[in-house]
């Protein structure tokens, strides 16, 4: 123990033992900070929070958060990355940083619903103009003079239509409209949002709910916002600081720990999904099975074009025939033993959720059968066991 003349109550408010500069461990040490101590007044006056590696205050960043931000930027093929406490807060940061009163924003019909709800709120509060387009039809987008931002989701939420990502970006660029992709499904693995074709076509912003595959545990919430353009990054960083957005060092450390296994897990989720998909397609209870790899799926050709190795997340939806009413759908969900009833995806446990299609869409649903929709989020269990679970639950109807 170091000798000291300090009183115990003083002693415990100082770090007793400082780590040497470098200790070789597999995982980096975890920094938790609200206060960051400046060496002296020169260090205080020279720092600036808009510098990428500024250490000023916990909300701006620590070596732990900067490590994850760098890794996510690498994963997505971007140059800059900001972290937010959830995927939804990352989405909201983009909306609130970029949209001013009277601006027009476009969203696909199959967008993650809370993003739609946030933009609806901005519409009511600040007069932001909200327009909805059909993700597989670029012609359904007609930018007005005040168009500022268009959201893309590939594949879209719940019904999983795959958008014409390249067509949408080209049209947006021609009208100087910023493109923001919710890249949670592709996770930076199925395709590169910042290098989509041989002309290196790129989105302006990629938002990722790290809650899903990067975390992989079903236990941590976090989001990221990636960009290549430095001015855009600074604009987002400014709002990030103004809103006091920050993430816990411990949560970040969990994701730093999960990242090395992410591509293996993603591949396994996908393999399991393909096996279960083959089973679902053969079931007579369903009017339609929804997955971008199916040749009759809306946007299948766009998926094939972008996801060159046939990659994709572990999500598949089915539409039950109309004879299965709400009671029967609930009975089915309750009868499942391995699939648990819950939102989110990307964790080890398979999940199920049911939706009323009719309440969800504004654009044409002619490509979708009538009936209750059930979404399966395929986890890391044995696909044979998962198929048996669906089989036994269907048998009870
Ligand atoms: C496509 C998509 N984007 C964003 C989110 C939001 O992520 P979070 O749960 O971290 O807020 C979700 C959550 O389900 C999602 O499915």
TrEMBL record:
One of its GO terms (molecular function) is pyridoxal phosphate binding. One of its GO terms (biological process) is L-cysteine catabolic process to pyruvate. It comes from the Bacteria. Keywords: Lyase, Pyridoxal phosphate. Pfam families: Cys_Met_Meta_PP. Coiled coil: none annotated. Gene3D superfamilies: Aspartate Aminotransferase, domain 1, Type I PLP-dependent aspartate aminotransferase-like (Major domain). PANTHER family: CYSTATHIONINE BETA-LYASE-RELATED. Belongs to the trans-sulfuration enzymes family. This is Cystathionine beta-lyase. It comes from Acinetobacter populi.
């Amino acid at each position: 123990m170091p000798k000291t003349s300090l009183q115990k109550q003083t002693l415990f408010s100082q770090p007793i033992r400082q780590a040497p500069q470098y200790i070789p461990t597999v995982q980096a040490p975890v920094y938790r900070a609200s206060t960051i101590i400046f060496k002296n007044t020169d260090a205080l006056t020279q720092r600036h929070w808009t510098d990428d590696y500024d250490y000023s205050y916990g909300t701006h960043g620590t070596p732990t958060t900067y490590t994850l931000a760098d890794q996510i930027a690498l994963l997505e093929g971007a140059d800059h990355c900001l972290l937010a406490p959830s995927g939804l807060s990352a989405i909201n940061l983009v909306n609130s940083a970029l949209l001013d009163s009277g601006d027009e924003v476009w969203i696909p019909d199959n967008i993650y619903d809370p993003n739609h709800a946030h933009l609806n709120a901005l519409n009511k509060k600040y007069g932001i103009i909200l327009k909805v387009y059909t993700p597989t039809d670029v012609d359904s987008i007609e930018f007005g003079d005040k168009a500022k931002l268009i959201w893309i989701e590939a594949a879209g939420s719940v019904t999983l239509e795959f958008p014409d990502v390249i067509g949408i970006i080209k049209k947006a660029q021609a009208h100087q409209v910023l493109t923001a992709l919710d890249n949670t499904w592709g996770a930076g693995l199925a395709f590169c949002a910042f290098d989509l074709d041989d002309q290196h076509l790129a989105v302006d912003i990629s938002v990722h709910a790290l809650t899903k595959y990067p975390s992989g545990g079903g236990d941590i919430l976090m989001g990221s916002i990636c960009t290549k353009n430095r001015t855009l990054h600074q604009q987002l960083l400014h709002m990030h600081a103004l809103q006091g957005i920050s993430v816990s060092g411990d949560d970040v450390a969990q994701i730093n720990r999960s990242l090395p296994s992410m591509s293996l897990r993603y591949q396994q989720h996908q393999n399991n999904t393909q096996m279960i998909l083959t089973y679902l397609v053969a079931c007579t209870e369903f009017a339609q099975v929804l997955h971008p790899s199916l040749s009759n799926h809306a946007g299948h050709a766009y998926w094939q074009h972008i996801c060159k190795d046939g990659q994709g997340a572990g999500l598949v939806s089915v539409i039950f025939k109309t004879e299965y009413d709400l009671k029967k759908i609930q009975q089915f969900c309750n009868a499942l033993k391995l699939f648990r009833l819950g939102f989110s995806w990307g964790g080890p446990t398979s999940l199920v959720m049911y939706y009323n299609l009719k309440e969800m869409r504004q654009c044409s649903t002619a490509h979708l059968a009538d009936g209750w929709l059930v979404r399966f989020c395929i986890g890391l269990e044995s696909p044979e066991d998962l198929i048996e679970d669906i089989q036994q639950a269907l048998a009870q109807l």
